[in-house]
Structures are given as structure tokens and as C-alpha cells.
Queue: 2 jobs
Job 1
Amino acid sequence: MYLLVGTAKGLFRYRTDNRTDWHALGPVLTGDPVYASAYNPATGTVYAGVNSEFYGPSIRRSHDWGEQWDTGGSGLAYDADDPERVTRVWSIRVVGDGLLYAGVEASGLFRSTDDGDTWSEVSALRQHPTQATWVPGYGGKCLHTIAPDPFHPSRLYIACSAGGIYRSDDSGGQWRPVNEGIRADFLPDDQRYPESGQCVHKFWLSPTRDGRIWLQNHGGVYRSDDGGDSWVSVGEPLPSDFGFPIVGHPVDPDCAYVLPLEEPRWSPGQQLAVHRTRDGGREWERLGDGLPQAFTGVLRDAFTADARTSLGLYFGTTSGSIFYSTDEGEHWHQLAEHLPRIYSVVAAEES
Amino acid sequence: MITVHLPAGLADEFRADPVLTMTARTCAEMLQSLDSRYPGIASWLAEPDGRFRQHLSVFVSGRRLASQAATSTPVDDGSEVWVLRAISGG
């Protein structure tokens, strides 16, 4: 297994056979921010969203775990007369059989049907009338999460910040916001439950229960059991319902993990800790064994899981440390420290 | 003919010669010529709206173009064009 760690200064890679002994392969794509990476086990391709300050964004590919990279496909841009520009890649989602999606800043969705040789915008999303409610957060105006629904082949979800979560039931031809019941703390009191414009930080679609979604909002943790048609607030028992990532269990749909943050976006009490629910969000337990005091945060794509029995969990901090657990979060270990600011962590299993 | 100097890192990425000669009357024609040799390189240098990327410095015959200059900028025959990474980053 490989851990692909996107940072402000390139992609760091770690290899392991047993999840205990880790071998650092060294950074690649050095100097450029890597916000997202992905792996396609069917083709052995690693994808990296490289956001060069000089040369713009690209989705580059490697077939040897990052030793060599191409310069990316074509078409990852809005039209010349578009008032917005594609400035960063925030998300890459491998579907299979050549199909990929990419989420970009300024918030938009791109599709490739040829493994990333060419890209074209899924334009109906930005043409939705609620697009006018999308605004940039501190990190930028970004489309950061993409999830094809394994129970409904034509169903696709995306989320953007700020903007909210949207669903298409026809593979991207038409979209509708599915934010009903999700709070927008940053709007006036009488406008806090709008149709769109929420600052959804991350969502996670269950592969084992139809319609189950976990969602970490900019204030609020939510669960949906009906594909986003309605949401239940489940963050109240947490020490803070603010955070960026949320990770669901790949088998147990009632289990999810969050990393609560308080102002100024450190873990409560400056004690780094993951919180887990195993009953659909009614109760949460703090999992901090092995995690240090730290004046740091964890960004939305910097927390992930593998798919092994006795789930492995991995997260990277804004101060450049990586921590992992191989027992479903009970105990944590440090894998690396003193890296650049960590944007994304991906666990990639060879087929 | 004009002579074009590419940033070393960019030339490495595209396995390009860092110094090239070509026929071009404008920066846009220069980018077209570069892209025909190294597909995709033009999009690394200019935006779809026909302007150079913000954090590049482009010199034509010793004169620095304005930031995000239009690629329609003329290039006289015999010119030397330098594409450089601007002071940027942290």
C-alpha cells in the first residue's frame, strides 16, 4: 500500500507492506502545491492535481508510483469568454473504464472519458440558477468533493464551498441543491437555512447503505438517509461541530470519523483527537491515544481510510505531520513530521 | 526567425529545448509554434483569454511586457523572447 500526501510543496509518498513499517520514497512534483491525488488500481495510474503558481493547474499522471509524470491532459479550462478561470484542481475522482471527474476552483466540474487525456466541463452545474449564491471561502471558491453513487449508476453528488451539496440523477445533465436542513452560520439569523450557499466542507457517501451520506459542514455535522433529500444534525455531542474532513467506514454505514476544531481552528484544548460514532451519530467517542498536543489543524482532504479489515486511518496536519491508526482509530502513531502544509492524504492499494 | 528562451524547469517538464528558434509575428504565433512541438505547453504559459499567466515575466527584445500581457503582442523578426518565472511564491 502507498500513502500519497499532497502538500504545499509537492507530493510525498510512503510505501508499506504491513502498515507498521513505512518507507519514505521522497517528494516529487516538488515546489508546487498538490491539493489532490488519486489512484486507479485497474490501470496503475496515479493522478495528481498540481496547482502551479506559475503555470496554472494540471492533472498529471504517473504509471510508476510517481517517479515520472506526464504534463497532463488538455481542456481543463473554462472558455475564453467565461468570467471565471480554472485556477486550481481540488478533487480527482476515478470512476473506471476511462471515466474521471475533477473538481476545480473557481467551482466547477470536469469530466474525462479517456483516463485524463482530454477534459470537458460538466457545464450544467455552473449553469444552475443557484450558482449566483456560490462564494469563496478562505481557501478559495472550490468544488472539493465528487461521489458517484454505487446504488444508482446515473446519480452523482458534488459539494462546493461555499455553495453546498448538489445531486444529479442523470449523470450530470441536470442538478439540484440538496441542502435542506443544513445550517449556514455566516448568514443573517433569518436566512440560515437557504436552498444553497452553504459552506459544506466535506461529505462522504456510504458504499454499503443506499442513501447514507455523512457531511461535515462549516459548523454542523449531518447525516442523510435519503440521498440528501433531508438531513439530521448529529454534531451536538461533539466538543465542536466545526471541522473540515469527515470519513465514513467503508463497511459499517453507522460509523464515521471527524476531527473537530475550535477557533483558531485547533483541536479542542489543543489536544489532537479524532472522534468516532458507531451508532449513526447519536454518540461520539474521543480517540486521542498516541496523538499529541498540537497547535494545528487538519484540512478537508487530509484525512482518509484504507479498505482493510481493522480499518486503517490516516491524516496529515497543516503543520506537516502524518498520523495513522491500524485499529479503527483506537491507537495512533506518527508516520512523518516537518513536512510542508498537508492538503491531501490518499491510501492507494495495488490491485 | 525569433529565438525563444524557456524557463529551465518548464523545458524539463516537456523535454523541450530551453532555447528554440521559430517563425512568429506575435506571441500568440510563438505559443502556437511551441504547442505544435510540445503539446499542452501553451496552456501552461497563457490563459484561454489570450493573456500570459500572471506569475510569468515575458521580455521581447529586451523590453518587459506588462503583467498578463495580451499574447497578440507583436514580435519583430530577429527578436529574442525570454519567458521567465516572476518573483513569486513563499
Note: The interface with chain A takes residues 7, 10, 13-14, 39-41, 43-45, 47-50, 53, 55-56, 85-86, 88-89 of chain B (CB under 8 Å).
Job 2
Amino acid sequence: MMPTFQTDIIEARNFLYQLLVRQVDEKAKNWIEQKIHLLANSFSTQNFYIAFTSAPRFVGKQNLHLSPMEESEANAIRKGFTLKNWTIDRTTRILFVLYLPTENAENHVSILSKVFQTAEVNELVALYAALPLLPFPEKYIYQCTEGIRTNMAPVFEAVALNNPFPAEFLDENAWNQLFLKAIFTGKKIYQIQGIKQRANATLAQICSDFAHERWAAGRKVTPELWMPVVHFINDTILKDLEKLKESNDILQRQALVLVCLESSHAQVKELLTGMEDLKEKALKGEFSWESISEQWHEANQ
Amino acid sequence: MMKFIDPHIHCVSRTTDDYEALRQAGVVAVIEPAFWLGQPRTEVGSFKDYFSTLIGWERFRASQFGIRHYCTIGLNSKEANNEALAEQVMEILPLYIYKEGVVGVGEIGYDDQTALEDKYFRLQLELAKEANLPVQIHTPHRNKKVGTSRSMDVCIEHGIAPQMVIIDHNNEETVKETLDRGFWAAFSIYPSTKMGNERMVEIVKKYGSERIFINSAADWGISDPLAVPKTAQLMAERGISEKDIHLVCYQNAYDAFAQSGQMHESDFIVEIDQSQRFNGNSVLRGGRDPKIEKLDSKIIK
């Protein structure tokens, strides 16, 4: 049985509201207040729809700024919840989503599905970014997989990156699809939440197959690909890792060292022989999956 | 390099080669009016998905090439003749016309000039008035002069200011009345059936550049997406001033549609840099060289 709520909705509303009023001008603040008053006291689908759609014209589209304290507050409100790269209009739209009535799952889904179906690009980004705050999460799993199927890069990023929902609710097949699509479309993989927890033998094999396909075509393989293989080493993957050791690319060797350090597999541990300097640096935190990812994307844009 | 706006082009029917060529030729923004698809739709769902494509996938597709994509939303005159379907389409229009980047109600007007066309034209004028959006009017191919006059009469009758109305597909026979009555006069440079660009040069010589602008109306038929830049080049060669070319190929279209409050010059990507990424995707994927259509054949007959 899945939970009905992922967060205390009142608390989440207050948090978003405080972030907004700190940053918007008086006119925008009044507009937001007027709308939430309307939604709280006389909710109608029509009122919600107009508020949601027209938000950018009244509040603007500037970036939302967060202090480190507010970032940890976000995480306290909902584990893994982050407002990284959010804008004012997106935050406002999601605040309005939190005013949907929650007495009845069918009603909630029916209103929001209609919005999903007729949404433009920025609205889709807001809707998918809202997934971790929605009540009745099991009702939105299919919608989440639809978001993974999208071809619109910003929409895919809203589902897959900096979002705790997929790792918590997707089945293995859908999760693996998310991971591989993120690799395939060149996303920064460390921004996917829950990679370690959701790693599995099937995904490890898919990653190995993917590398072989790329190598056969004479193409590069991002070192981020090896993040989920740590606990699922087989003979093929062991050979793949040996190959990384021979790589001229320092990032590939760094990735190998991180895999070796996390793994308890004896033959994988042995691969560290002759890589003591990198091991040293890894232990000192001089590189990480994040730094590997950032540098890889910098070099391979 | 001059920059251009093509304020009428059906991008859903065009290839990525066209997008590359448009950007290379200096087109920084396009407007895609909702139209028919070459054959009649039979279900309201087809309209819904088409409108969603205009504000979603097509907007993203254009952004990959550094082009800002806007659209106008409406029930076209041909399909207004299916009354049962038209009623359902009218019901979903309000879901779309308030969306971000929707710069008008269009393209609407007359085709056969039937009673049903008249009915839905008027209903949509009311919708535009309520939303305070410009109206993009398709004038008929047959019985054009009468149809054009009538379109303007009906706009006035509904209390819509001429400066909020773009009369499209003008020709030598309709331009004078359109301008005299204070409407925007748009011309589609479309081979064989609409305007040729040598004729267009003569029109600008005769009527000047006030409230006149051009578009390609490129669609699924034999048409030329580069009609705007090609015509600009021809105008320059035939002695029309740079200032007038700028008005006819950029500024007037901008001024007309920016009245929607949904189009902002500051959103255009003006610097062209082949290595630049738009919306996270490289324009030149897989290391391909850009395919650039040459402007050597610039006469459109």
C-alpha cells in the first residue's frame, strides 16, 4: 500500500509561498494572494486552470534564488525535494497545484490529467517537477513514465533530474528506461536521484551492452555509465572495467577507481593495483561522480 | 546580418533542413497559425493533439535551431463547415488561447464564405476580444476581394480595432482597402497561388512600408520557407531602403503580434554560433556539418 501523501501539503504551500513573496514585487504578490485565496475558498477547475496557465504574465519568469538553509528546508519538507534551477512562474504554478482538493483521488487525477494533456512546454516542466509533492503518488506513476517518453529535453529533465519521485515509485523496467535514456541523451547523470538504491543486475547488463554497442561504432562512452554496476559485477562487466583501466581518458580511470572503491568484489578490488595515486585522490575527495560528470560534459559538449 | 520574422509558416510540415536554413538566413522567430492538415479531421481529439503540438513539441523543435516559435490558435474556415465537430473545437479553444506564446487567434476567416464559416468566424472574434489577442485572418482564394472586404466589415461589426487584426494573403487587388481601413496587410510569398516576390517589391514601392509585412505561408504544399529572407534580398537589389525592408520583414510583424503581450524581442536568440546549444541540445548532433540552403535562386514565381 502506497502512502496517500508524500508531504504535508499545508507546509509545502507555506514554504513555496514564503520563497515567492520574498522575491516578487508587490503587484505579483497581490496577484498570487488573490489567486490562492480564490482557490482555497471557492475552488473550481476553471479558476485553477486560469491561474495555472496565466501565472507567467503576472509573476514573471526570473530564476528562483534559494539560500543553503532554504535548500535544506526543502529536503525536510519532502526528502529529495530540490528546487534547483526553478523559476518564479514554475514555483507559482506548483503552489497552485497544491490547492487542488485532496478528498478524492479520482477527482485530483482527472483535473490534473487534463492539464497535462493540454500543457505547453513550461507547464509540462512545472507539472513534472511537482510530482514529488502530489498526493496519491501511485496514481501518477503512469504519467511519470509518459514524461520519460517525451522528446522535449526540458520536460525529460524535469522528470529525470533532481527529482525524487522516479526512484521511489517506478518499477524496475521503467527505472532502467529512465537511466538509459538519460545516458543516451547526454544528461548529467549524478543529478538523477537514487541511482545506488535502484541499481539492479538487469540495468548493469544493459549498461555493459550499451558500452559494447558504442565501442563497436567507434563512439565514446560516458564514464557515468558505470555508476550502477558496482554490486552487479559479472565476467563481461569485469572485462569492461579492465578496459577502462587502459583508457587514455583520466575521467574513465577516475570512474573505475570509484567503482573499485565501492565494490566488495575481489577481482574488481585488484584492479586498483597500479592506480594508487588516483585511489588516494578519490579518498581525499578530489574527484567524485559529480566532478567526473561535470568535466565530461564540459569536454564533450 | 539582417534578422527576420516569418509570421506565418506551418512548421509541423517542414523538415529540420528547413529550420537550419531559416536560422542560417537570419530568421529569429516564427509564428505558426493553426490551420487544416490538407484533409479534414474527424475527431475533436485530433484538434486537441494538434494544438498541443503547436505549443509543445513544435516549439521545442524550433528552439533546437535557435528559432523562437509562437503560434496562433483557432478553428480554420474549411473545417468550420463540419458543425458537429466545430462545436466541440470551440469548447476546447479557451484551453489554448491563454497559453504562453499564443500570440493571436488564427488563422480564421472565410474559405467558401458559407453560413457556418461566418458563424464560427464571429464566435472566434468574440473569443479574441475577450482575451485581448490579435486576430490573424485567412482571406479566401476564390472570390477574394469580396471575402476580404467582408472579413474587415465583420471585425468592425464586432468592435475589434483594425490595429488588432492582420489581414493575410493580400494581393494587388485587396491591399489598398486593407491599408485604407487601418488594418495590417500581410502578404504570403507563396509560389503560383499567392504572391510572387517580384510583385511584392512593386507593392512596397507603391504603398511603402507602413503596416505591410510578408510571410512564407510555407506548409505541406509546394512552398518556400525562405520566402522572407529571399524577398528581403530582392528588395535590397531593387532599391528598397534597408529601413523599409526591416519594417516589412521584421518590425511590423513584431509590432502587430506583440500586442498579445506574449512576444518579446528579448527572448530571441540573436547571436548565431554554430557550436551553441539550444535548450540543451546541440543543433549539430553527431558532428554533422550544417546543411545550408544557398540563397542563389531567390525569385519565387
Note: Residues 245 and 253 of chain A are 6 Å apart (CA to CA).
